[in-house]
Amino acid sequence: MAIRFEHTETIQTTPQRAFEVIDDLPLTAQWLPPCVSLNKVGDGPNAPGDKLRYVFKQGGHQGEMEGEIVDREDGQRLHCRYFDKAFEVAVDLCVDDAPEGVTTTHIVEITPKGLMGKLMSPLIRRGLTKQTREAAANLKRLLESESD
Q1: Are 33 and 139 a contacting pair, CB within 8 Å?
Q2: What is the DSSP letter of 63?
Q3: Of 2-6, 51-55, 144-148, which range is least confident?
């Protein structure tokens, strides 16, 4: 069973700038807490089907996941999927106009593949909630500090 968490944050910036930062994959390490690096395998603009390499540090160890861009709507949405032997992770980031600037919605869904992951689901859920809120706050801080 998948572990899902959704969080929306209001940010004082333009939709174009918010999406530019989300779509700049290497910049992810500046706002997503466990991210060491996120890179596309290959050149050119981001597009559905592009392969990704995600390196993270969590629980005192460094890991790596393969990934791909599932969907991308310029200026509005970047949906990626990551996987390794233990988990499949879907990350959907959406940008919408708001009177104060934009809202960003982070939807993260983690599907454990094995028994150990399923047994750890309550801990994973708690960590996912904290991590997603922290990532949204970091992204907000990054974007709003640019206009200072």
Answers
A1: no
A2: E
A3: 144-148
What is the count of structural domains for the chain? Answer: 1
- Which residue type sits at 85? K
Tokens of 124: 């994973």
In angstroms, how far is the first alpha carbon of the chain from the final one?
A: 43
Q: What is the pLDDT of residue 45?
A: 95
Element (H, E) at 128: helix 121-145
The closest of 72, 114, 112 to 93, measured between CA atoms, is 72
Stated as kind and residue range, the H or E segment containing 109 is strand 101-112
Q: Which residues pair with 79 in a beta bridge?
A: 71, 92
pLDDT for 110: 96
CA distance linking residue 95 with residue 15, whole number of Å: 6
Query: Where in the sequence is the domain holding 117, given as residue range(s)?
Result: 3-32+73-145
